[in-house]
Amino acid sequence: MTDMNNDAIQATVIAVLNDTVQDWDLELEEGIAANTTLIEDLAFESIDIVQFSVALEQALGRKDLPFEKLFINDGAYVDDVTVAQIVAFLAAEAQAA
Amino acid sequence: MTVTDVDTTYEPYSQDPGYIAANSALIEALDLDGVSRVADLACGTGLLSGVLIGRKPTLAIAGIDLDPVQIGIARRTFPGPVVDGLDALRARAAAGEGAAWFNAASATDLPFEDGEIDLIVQGNSIHLMPDRPAFLREVARVLRPGGQYTFNSVFYQGTYLEGSEAVFGEWMKQATYVLDELNSERAARGEAPVKRVRGKGGKAFRKDWLSGQGWEAALAEAGLTTSYRGDRNVPISAEGLGLVGAYGGLAEVLMSGYPVDIASHCLMEAAPRAFDKLGITEVPRNWLEVRAVRA
User: Fold this and answer.
1) Whole-structure pTM value
2) Integer Cα distance of B247 and B14 in angstroms
3) Could you say which of B157, B173, B202 has the minimum Cβ distance to residue A45?
4) B123-166 pLDDT, tens digit each
5) What pLDDT is attached to residue B274?
6) Range B133-144 burial, b when 16+ CB lie within 10 A, else e
């Protein structure tokens, strides 16, 4: 992951999301993109967040990514997360690694 | 442990030392002078009622919970006389004799007269009330002027101590690993993976938790004046977290859409794995405690 640029990270995130939602009967007119949100657009439930996080770690060859930094802000859960925010989080973690 | 061995009722967690300590502290802090008629709302297995009667054997306690299984446990395990109706409980109260009556019903539609109750206690369930303003108005309705209402909750803004969120995240991750192992075992037996039915849980992050200040404002709206509000740090052990996860009511939320027995099994198995992985023996968590008085 450390040698991936943002485009490659985004492609991986979208691939994992497509794999996650493939059987969900969602109606996404333009497919999953940078501005797609996990909750409003993809109807993620709590366990979906966890399973997506695990799948993302496996796809990126990383373990123990601190997803709480992404999903919790000032002690409270965020309202939603876009693909772009996930990519920015992963890029920052790659730089810190 | 196999999936079928998991007890998904609230009873195992209600016997966890940390859970008992948190709830006993809530009751021990109460002033019971002038109190005889008590309601224990969403009483579960009757832990608070038991602590109350231990402190003051003349209390007449009405325990109410939606779940008839838990009501059955409360009736069997209550450490005092149990009567089988509200009128019988009222008669005991009039005679100055203690007892409990446990009834499977909603806490949002109470069977009491206006101002009939001296004290209402509610352990770790106020966050579950679907219509908070209506519920708190009902609490205020049945309390006498000067009557007390106390509750605690581990689901509010402020429950997580800084840095502890990662422990609960790791717990959930480990639960998915346990599920993966179950599916591998099923595949080896030629069985289909555990089926999930999506759409049974709410959307992620929509917890709608209030802060302590938020609860204080909600109480004030209902005519209840907060006399005490505080956070109690109660560490959770791996065993305690496993018992929390085994409770079906929580498991069906955390692993929504999976069969409850399997979700409970995964969460119970995951707790000690998460603690082992992180090299910890307990995780801190705050309980909100509130006492309020009806004007």
Assistant:
1) 0.84
2) 10
3) B202
4) 999 998 989 999 999 999 999 999 999 999 998 988 988 888 88
5) 97
6) eebbebbbbbbe
Domains of chain A: 6-96 (1.10.1200.10)
Report residue B147 as tokens.
């009557």
Residue numbers in A near B207 (CB within 8 A): 77
Cα distances from B74 to residues B41, B63, B159, B160, in angstroms, run 13, 9, 28, 30
Q: Does the residue B55 lie in any domain?
A: yes
What is the per-residue pLDDT across A54-84, written as a single tens digit (0 to 9) for each? 999 999 999 889 998 899 887 678 889 999 9
Contacts of B199 in chain A (CB under 8 A): 43
Report chain B's terminal Cα–Cα distance, integer Å. 52
**pLDDT given at position A95:** 86
**Residues B79 and B216 both lie in one domain:** yes
- Asked whether residue B200 carries a pLDDT value surpassing 90, the answer given is no
Q: Let me know whether B127 and B181 are in one domain.
A: no
Q: Which residue of B has its CA nearest to A49?
A: B204
Q: Which residues of B touch A (CB under 8 A)?
A: 157-158, 160, 162, 165-166, 169, 172-173, 175-177, 198-199, 201-207, 209, 253-258
Orientation of helix B238-246 relative to helix B17-28, angle to 10°: 90
Q: Are residues B72 and B211 in the same domain?
A: yes
Q: Does A96 touch chain B (CB under 8 A)?
A: no
Q: Are residues B63 and B176 in the same domain?
A: no
- The ipTM estimated for the assembled molecules is 0.84
Determine contact: A89 vs chain B, CB below 8 A. Answer: no
Checking DSSP bridges between strand B99-104 and strand B60-65, what pairing results, if any? Answer: parallel
Statement to judge: residues B170 and B102 lie in one domain:
no
